[in-house]
From TrEMBL:
<keyword id="KW-0223">Dioxygenase</keyword>
<dbReference type="GO" id="GO:0018578">
    <property type="term" value="F:protocatechuate 3,4-dioxygenase activity"/>
</dbReference>
<feature type="domain" description="Intradiol ring-cleavage dioxygenases">
    <location>
        <begin position="42"/>
        <end position="112"/>
    </location>
</feature>
<protein>
    <submittedName>
        <fullName>Protocatechuate 4,5-dioxygenase subunit alpha</fullName>
    </submittedName>
</protein>
<dbReference type="InterPro" id="IPR050770">
    <property type="entry name" value="Intradiol_RC_Dioxygenase"/>
</dbReference>
<dbReference type="InterPro" id="IPR012786">
    <property type="entry name" value="Protocat_dOase_a"/>
</dbReference>
<comment type="similarity">
    <text>Belongs to the intradiol ring-cleavage dioxygenase family.</text>
</comment>
<dbReference type="Pfam" id="PF00775">
    <property type="entry name" value="Dioxygenase_C"/>
</dbReference>
<dbReference type="InterPro" id="IPR015889">
    <property type="entry name" value="Intradiol_dOase_core"/>
</dbReference>
<keyword id="KW-0560">Oxidoreductase</keyword>
<dbReference type="InterPro" id="IPR000627">
    <property type="entry name" value="Intradiol_dOase_C"/>
</dbReference>
<dbReference type="GO" id="GO:0008199">
    <property type="term" value="F:ferric iron binding"/>
</dbReference>
Length: 193
């Protein structure tokens, strides 16, 4: 076979498959329930994952990590088995067909006096070769928000993409925009894949 024939008969393949292939294995029962819904001090964190055109992304996967209500970083084991009593500070949900997600959790406390409470978020979705890291902040303590080392280096219009809206029912509404107008600020941790 000549070199010319070989070049024309081979089809290029992608360098890395995109997926997502995690939908059948990574979500688990009650993954979004860091505390049972309706339990004392529970709060819903909910929103929609959107693409650059503002359309919902139906196949994203979100993970959150957070301190407990007193600001303690929890080191409990058993995150994949929800017993209804142990707060592990970690959850994982797949978004629905409409791009919507919900976690039932508690309002995190500040990990240090004067620090702004936040929830760390990881996003995995189609078209993303690497996961995205971001944060969602509670809106109430404006002084702590103004002094937060991450928020303070952002322009005000970019800063607002990381601050949830507290709704009348006490829940936190926060949309994640992967691109476009009001794109969520994503964080870069050097040396992380």
């Amino acid at each position: 076979m000549s070199t010319e024939t070989t070049k024309t008969s081979l089809t290029a393949t992608p360098a890395q498959t995109i997926g997502p292939f995690y939908g059948f294995a990574l979500p688990f029962e009650k993954g979004g329930e860091l505390v049972p819904p309706g339990s004392p001090d529970s709060v819903a964190l909910h929103g929609t994952v959107l693409d650059g055109h503002g359309d919902p992304i139906p196949d994203a996967l979100l993970e959150i990590w957070q301190a407990d209500a007193k600001g303690n970083v929890v080191a409990e084991t058993g995150s994949l088995v929800r017993d209804g009593r142990t707060f592990t500070g970690w959850g994982r949900v797949a978004v629905g067909n409409t791009g919507k997600y919900v976690f039932t959790t508690v309002n995190p406390g500040p990990t240090e006096p004067g620090k702004a409470p936040f929830i760390a978020v990881t996003v995995l979705a189609r078209g993303l070769l690497n996961r995205l890291f971001t944060r969602v902040y509670l809106p109430e303590d404006t002084e702590a928000l103004a002094n937060d080392p991450v928020l303070s280096v952002l322009e005000p219009d970019r800063r607002k993409t990381l601050i949830a809206e507290r709704l009348a029912d006490g829940s936190l509404h926060w949309d994640i925009r992967l691109q476009g107008e009001d794109e969520t600020v994503f964080l870069d941790f050097h040396g992380q894949p």
